[in-house]
Amino acid sequence: MKTLEEFVELFAEQFDDTDASEIQAGTVFHDLDEWSSLIGLSVIAMVDEEFDVALKGDDVKTSITIEDLYNRVASKL
Amino acid sequence: MTYNPFTLEGKTVMVTGASSGIGRATAIECSKMGASVIVTGRNEERLNETFKALGGEGHQQIVADLTNQEDIDILVSQIGALDGLVNNAGLGRNKPIGFIKMDDLEYVYQTNVFACILLTKSLLKKKKINKGGSLVFTSSISSRLNSPGIAMYASSKAAVSSFMRSCAVELGDKGIRSNAVLPGMVETKLITRGDYTEEDFEKDKNLYALKRYGKPQEIAYAIIYLLSDASSWVTGTSLVVDGGRLLK
User: Fold this and answer.
1) pTM of the model
2) Distance from the B148 Cα atom to the nearest Cα atom in chain A, whole angstroms
């Protein structure tokens, strides 16, 4: 499985206007200005592509930090 | 009181995608309106549940995967001529445009577009649509109103709507009509696969003038109108059944 650092990098790739330095493992991603439902869908699609894991909308909604979401993905592998 | 211009008495109607959702409700309501109904779908168990729920007699159930030409051929060979065809089988997959792959497109288009066109073609070729018959397609308001993530589904439904109009133009001489229903969000498995949260749905419902999603039966009633002789001068039209969503 990819490392947390790699996951954070892939997560950051879904954003256009947010500087990568603002996106860390501990970032509360729902609070990012650019966060939107479309980016949420992009994250779900990215996880499907990179990890072959089907996240649910609820997984994204209830994860607070990017690391939380990474752990959610890991638990479904 | 027997006056009912919407009756389907004496008509044979085939419904695809009848094992669940709008297809199941349509099959059941058509049977209650007096039609002999042929239900088809991929899942034998769920199709049988629909079949058992049909009212009256003379119905038929045929398991078929319409993405497979052999199955289409077998289905067409097993049925008599139809007065109504409800091209309803459909599915969706939500992905932002940047993630679309050929696999995804094939998955969505094979059922929503190719199967619907090829089944219609096979029935016409084998002369299994009676003069005066009615084709009804389940399209979607997403063919007109786009929201993020639904590019594949929405474009496939736009294709369905366009094909519906081609049928209306080519088949008018035979007195065969062709129309579509464009549902808004309807409470079926199609929309509850988990991409969206309950909260997303509640927010979305507020965009509907009637502040709620539809029930499968509410789409079935529109389909019944288009199948019945009450709509005998209606062809090539798209009937929006969306609780007022397109108003926003």
Assistant:
1) 0.90
2) 6
